[in-house]
Design a protein that fits this description.
Helix content is about 70%, strand content about 5%. The protein is mainly alpha-helical and about 290 residues long. It folds into 2 domains: about 160 residues, no CATH class; about 100 residues, no CATH class. A two-stranded antiparallel ribbon has the order 1-2. A two-stranded antiparallel ribbon has the order 3-5. The chain has a two-stranded parallel ribbon with strand order 4-6. Strand 1 and strand 2 form a beta hairpin. The longest helix has about 70 residues. Pfam families: His_kinase (PF06580).
Length: about 290
C-alpha cells in the first residue's frame, strides 16, 4: 500500500509540474503569436528554441519545488536538522532554491524574451515569472499536504476505531467461556438426575458450542451459516435451562447464509438479551432473529 501511494504521489507531482509549465508557457505562446502577426513592431520574434528551453527550465523548477514541498525529508546540516515536514524549514529551503535557480539562470545565459534587447528587462521578467511559478507550486504543494494529512488522520482514526471494536468484541468473547461454562454445569447438575436423555442432549449441544468457539478463534469473520449452526446449539441449551420461559423465532432465508459476520456475535446478543431481561413462564422472553433489507 505504501509503495502504491508513493508511486501515485510521484505521478501526481509530474502531472502538476506539467500543468504549471503549461500555465507559465501559455503567455509566452500568446506573445510569440502576437509578434508574428504584427511584424511592424520591429521586435525580434521569439523562436521555438527559446520557448522550448524556457518551458523545460520551468518544468524542472516546478518539479523540484513540488517534490521538496510534498516530501518528508530530513537533512542534517552543521547547525541543525532541516525537516521538510515543518513549514518554516520548507520556507527557508524555497528561498535558498529561488536564489540558486536565479543564479543558475544568470550563469547559463538562458534568454528571457528575445524581443527584449536590454538584459535588465529580461532579468526582471524572469524574476517575476520565477516568483509566480515558485509561489504557485508552493500553494499547490501546501494544498496537497493538507489533503494528505487529512486522509492520513482519517485513516488513523478508522484504524483506532477498528482496534477498539476488535478489543471490545474480544472481551465479550472471552466472557463467554467462564460465564457460559458455569451456567452450563449448573444446568447439567440440575437435569442429570431428572432426565438423563435431556442431560446427554445438553452435553452434546454444549460440546458443539465449545467446538465452534475453538474453531472460530483467530478468525475475523465467519459465514452466517456457521454462526447459525452454533447459535442453534446455544439456543437449545437455553431452552433446556429456561423451558417455556424463552421463545426464539429464527427466520433467516437461505440466501443470506453466505454473508459474513464476526464469530460469536449473534451468541453475545442472545446471551445479553437473556441476561438483562425477565425470563419466566409467566413472563416469557421472545427473541426474534430475522433478516431485513439484506
Amino acid at each position: 500500500m505504501q509503495l502504491t501511494q508513493t508511486k501515485y504521489s510521484r505521478i501526481l507531482i509530474l502531472l502538476t509540474a506539467l500543468a504549471v509549465t503549461m500555465f507559465m508557457t501559455l503567455p509566452r505562446i500568446m506573445f510569440m503569436a502576437y509578434l508574428r502577426n504584427n511584424p511592424g513592431l520591429r521586435m525580434n520574434p521569439i523562436t521555438w528554441g527559446d520557448l522550448a528551453s524556457k518551458s523545460l527550465f520551468a518544468f524542472l523548477v516546478a518539479w523540484l519545488i513540488l517534490w521538496l514541498n510534498t516530501a518528508n525529508i530530513n537533512m542534517a546540516t552543521f547547525f541543525r536538522t532541516i525537516r521538510t515536514s515543518k513549514f518554516s524549514h520548507r520556507l527557508v529551503i524555497n528561498i535558498l532554491l529561488f536564489l540558486l535557480v536565479r543564479w543558475l539562470f544568470i550563469i547559463s545565459g538562458i534568454p528571457e524574451e528575445s524581443a527584449l534587447r536590454q538584459r535588465k528587462g529580461a532579468v526582471f521578467l524572469f524574476n517575476i515569472s520565477l516568483v509566480l511559478e515558485v509561489c504557485l507550486c508552493i500553494l499547490v504543494a501546501e494544498i496537497y499536504r493538507l489533503f494528505r494529512n487529512n486522509q492520513e488522520q482519517r485513516l488513523r482514526n478508522e484504524m483506532l476505531l477498528k482496534a477498539n471494536a476488535e478489543a471490545t468484541f474480544e472481551v465479550l468473547k472471552n466472557q463467554v467461556n467462564p460465564h457460559f461454562l458455569f451456567n452450563s454445569l449448573n444446568t447439567i447438575n440440575a437435569v442429570i438426575d431428572k432426565d438423563v436423555i435431556a442431560a446427554k442432549k445438553f452435553v452434546t449441544n454444549m460440546s458443539q458450542v465449545y467446538r465452534h468457539i475453538l474453531n472460530s478463534a483467530g478468525r475475523p469473520v465467519i459465514t452466517l451459516a456457521e454462526e447459525l449452526e452454533f447459535t442453534t446449539a446455544y439456543i437449545n441449551m437455553l431452552l433446556e435451562r429456561h423451558s417455556k420461559g424463552l421463545l426464539v423465532d429464527l427466520n433467516i432465508p437461505e440466501a443470506c447464509n453466505a454473508l459474513f459476520l464476526p464469530p460469536v456475535s449473534l451468541q453475545v446478543l442472545i446471551e445479553n438479551a437473556v441476561k438483562h431481561n425477565v425470563v419466566a413462564v409467566s413472563h416469557p422472553l421472545k427473541i426474534n432473529i430475522s433478516e431485513q433489507d439484506g
